[in-house]
């Protein structure tokens, strides 16, 4: 018997006893049992909500100088959600190639790598945006589940807000993917200094972050990085074939960008660049899996 079943058994037995006596379980007892059964989800939802709060406080202009540590709390909270979801997916660690391969291909491992890359450096511009938008989607996802379980009519305004976020979820996921791609361009300018150590740090960080993008590109659950890469390559190809495009940029595209992208995932075909079906939010929907 699993740990969750051991924890839930007393509550479930109490409900069965009440029902056997002809008395339906109280509303408070039912709510308590629901929270116990889904405690990991609600802990994750609370941490995601803290990510939103930390980011908002960090972005307030007159508080930024005093609350710069909110930037690092955001990264830590993001790391905590990734670790908790990894623990939820992989209940028991194993030392074998198959387990390590599954672990490296999991989206939560990629999220954890993203946070760890930037935690040791001064605040980077726009690093917070993918984390904030992901937190917004996950909080809305858990919020819809809570509203549907309690009473949809009692939280009408809140539900409309969640539905508005769900309506824009495709655009939000595209913004996340685009931001993560263009951060690769920001890193050298943010870390580069006129010293050997600064140059080495920039190169190492770019290499590690490029590996993160490769993992994102190869993700089986989230196709948006592949979608955005495909669209960017298509637009770059259109502009590079124009007569007004400088020859140096055209050569850069065909000699560097195209080979680099083709090596990311040779097995990825054009038909893989598909949009996920709606709805994206809700229990066991698209957002729940990434």
Can you describe what's shown?
With 290 residues, the chain is mainly alpha-helical. The chain has 2 domains: 1-37, no CATH class; 47-223 and 275-289, no CATH class. It is 73% helix and 0% strand. It is built from 13 helices and no strands. It starts with a helix and ends in a 26-residue tail after the last helix. The model is unreliable at 1-21 and 270-274 (pLDDT under 50).
Main attributes of the structure:
290 residues; globular; mainly alpha; 73% helix; disordered N terminus; single chain; 13 helices; 2 domains
Q: Helix and strand layout, with pairings?
A:
Layout: H1 3-20, H2 27-37, H3 39-59, H4 61-64, H5 69-89, H6 97-105, H7 107-119, H8 128-150, H9 156-167, H10 169-191, H11 196-217, H12 224-240, H13 247-264
Helix percent reads: over 70%
**Principal-axis shape:** globular
Please state roughly what percent of the residues sit in beta strands, choosing from under 5%, 5-15%, 15-25%, 25-35%, 35-45% or over 45%: under 5%
- Summing up helix and strand content along with how strands pair, one would put the structural category as mainly alpha
Number of helices: 13
**Rg result:** 23 Å
Q: How would a crystallographer describe the biggest sheet?
A: none
What oligomeric assembly is this protein in? single chain
The separation of the N and C termini measures 28 Å
Task: Estimate the mean pLDDT confidence.
Answer: 75
**Number of structural units classed as domains:** 2
Count of DSSP strands? 0
As residue ranges, the low-confidence spans are 1-21, 270-274
InterPro entries: PER33/POM33_regulator, TMEM33/Pom33
GO biological process, one term: membrane organization
Protein name: Transmembrane protein 33
Keywords: Membrane, Transmembrane, Transmembrane helix
């Amino acid at each position: 018997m699993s740990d969750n079943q051991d924890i839930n058994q007393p509550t479930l037995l109490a409900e069965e006893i009440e029902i056997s006596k002809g008395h339906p379980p109280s509303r408070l007892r039912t709510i308590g049992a629901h929270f116990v059964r889904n405690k990991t989800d609600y802990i994750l939802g609370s941490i995601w909500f803290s990510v939103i709060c930390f980011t908002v406080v960090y972005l307030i202009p007159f508080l930024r100088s005093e609350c710069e540590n909110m930037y690092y709390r955001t990264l830590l909270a993001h790391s905590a959600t990734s670790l908790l979801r990894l623990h939820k997916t992989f209940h028991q660690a194993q030392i074998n190639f198959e387990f390590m391969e599954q672990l490296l291909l999991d989206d939560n491992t990629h999220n954890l790598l993203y946070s760890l890359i930037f935690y040791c450096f001064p605040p980077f511009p726009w690093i917070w945006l993918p984390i904030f938008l992901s937190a917004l989607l996950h909080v809305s996802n858990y919020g819809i589940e809570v509203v549907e379980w309690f009473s949809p009519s009692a939280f009408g305004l809140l539900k409309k807000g969640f539905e508005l976020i769900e309506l824009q979820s495709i655009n939000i996921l595209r913004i996340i993917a685009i931001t993560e791609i263009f951060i690769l361009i920001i890193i050298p300018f943010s870390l580069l200094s006129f010293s050997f150590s600064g140059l080495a740090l920039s190169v190492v960080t770019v290499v590690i972050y490029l590996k993160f993008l490769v993992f994102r590109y190869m993700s089986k659950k989230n196709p948006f990085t592949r979608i955005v890469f495909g669209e960017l390559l298509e637009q770059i190809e259109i502009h590079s074939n124009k007569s007004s495009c400088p020859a140096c940029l055209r050569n850069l595209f065909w000699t560097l960008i195209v080979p680099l992208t083709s090596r990311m995932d040779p097995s990825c075909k054009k038909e893989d660049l598909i949009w996920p079906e709606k709805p994206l939010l809700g229990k066991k929907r698209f957002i729940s899996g990434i």
